[in-house]
Amino acid sequence: MVIDGHCHVWPDAIADQALSLPVEDLRRFADGKVSSLIADMDRAGVDRAICLAVADSPRRLDGANHFVASLPADRFVGFGSVHPGASVAENLDSLRRHGLRGVKVHPLFQHYRLDDPALGEILDALQGEFVATIHVGEGGTPEENERCTPQMLAALCRRFPRLEVIACHFGGYKLLDEVEEIVVGLPVTIDTSWSPSLAVLDPARVRSIIERHGPDRVVFGSDWPMADPAAEIAAIEALGLAADDVEAVLGGNLQRLLA
Q1: Which of 3, 80, 145, 237 has its CB 3.0 to 4.6 Å from that of 254, i.e. a possible disulfide?
Q2: Rounded to whole angstroms, how far apart are CA atoms 64 and 227?
Q3: Residue 111 contacts residue 119 (beta carbons within 8 Å)
Q4: Residues with Cβ < 8 Å from 121, sequence gap 6 or more?
Q5: CA distance 84 to 1
Q6: 10-residue block means of pLDDT along the chain (259 residues)?
């Protein structure tokens, strides 16, 4: 089974608006609609995808969680959103009411820091029950990029040792030096998403990161609609990893993590 662990979709009526804001150095591969993701999954041979909700304010929290929970269960696993602007009880009630398995934490788009004390209370409450997929690294202005650094990820791991974390972009988008120094070896799972494509990175360096961190703690993520799942699978297969490790990264590890 091939599982894409990092996708974003929106209702058709707002997908264009959600993707209208320009992001430096990032092209859009697709339109962000559910039907388009299914078509790209079928073309790439992806069996299931984790769709990540990102609510940019507390008032949009429950609507975002309702939407990802409503996606077809035979193809999608919904990860909800949390926001420190809502109480711990409000966040957990929304996740549980919609039957969600995990959450997406995105400090850049949600306008808080990864070390925000209010977020810390939520993460503490998630321990042992939910998986937390966390954006780490750059993607905004220099000031925004300080909201979610590899150093913050390491501190978070020390503070919440029972929290199951998937760190996006190898644990540091555009920060591979810090990934190798700080993230490799942390008790977290890392995903392979790297817009516009994993193929822009040195494959020998990526292979070394995966092998040193442990192939059993690395999962495939395309970051659709920013990247093409078929191209990202091809880039993983071209890294020169052992066949069993490729199979684990492309789906086995996520299957085990969500079991």
Answers
A1: 3
A2: 22
A3: no
A4: 84, 88
A5: 35
A6: 97 86 70 97 98 96 98 98 98 98 96 98 98 97 96 98 98 98 98 96 98 98 97 98 98 95
